[in-house]
Amino acid sequence: MIMSTSRRATARMGNRFSKQAFLVIVALAIALHAYQQLALASTFSVGWFAWALTPYAVCALLLWRLESGVPSICGALAALLLDLDTHYDVFIHPGSSTAALALIFVPLWSTILICPVVMLIAWLIVNRRRTVAHRVP
């Protein structure tokens, strides 16, 4: 009985940490895209702002759906790193006149390809660790 209570307390604490870490990543993404929309764009567009945050919404859905928050954190972190790289390539050191097209396609690539692959790999690793942990006497 004590073991199950301890496990539940640990799971709640881990889930709370996962949600907090996820919210920090999403807050950084919101700050980045708000800066792009407010300081670098000629006018603020709610549609483009929401489009840029689509990968994080997908990660948020899985955060509340899965038992572990690790896959969602990994997916959101991958999306944020790709967004930061895109920001650098578009606004700081553009390589060509068509560099701004990345602002259209990166959220699509993040939502369809990058985040799901990263979340799948993280989910497989988490499940593998749980399986190994349960086999240890």
Measured distance between first and last alpha carbons: 18 Å
Low-confidence stretches: 6-10
Helix percentage range: over 70%
**What sort of overall outline do the alpha carbons produce when their principal axes are compared?**
elongated
Largest β-sheet summary = none
Taking Cα atoms only, what radius of gyration do you get, to the nearest Å? 18 Å
* Class by alpha and beta content: mainly alpha
Tally of helical runs: 5
Number of E-state strands:
0
Helix-strand pattern, N to C? HHHHH
Beta-strand proportion: under 5%
Rounded mean pLDDT is 87
Describe the structure in your own words:
The chain has five helices and no strands. The chain has helices spanning 2-40, 46-52, 54-65, 70-92, 102-135. With 137 residues, it is mainly alpha-helical. Helices cover 84% and strands 0% of the residues. Helix 1 runs parallel beside helix 4 (70-92).
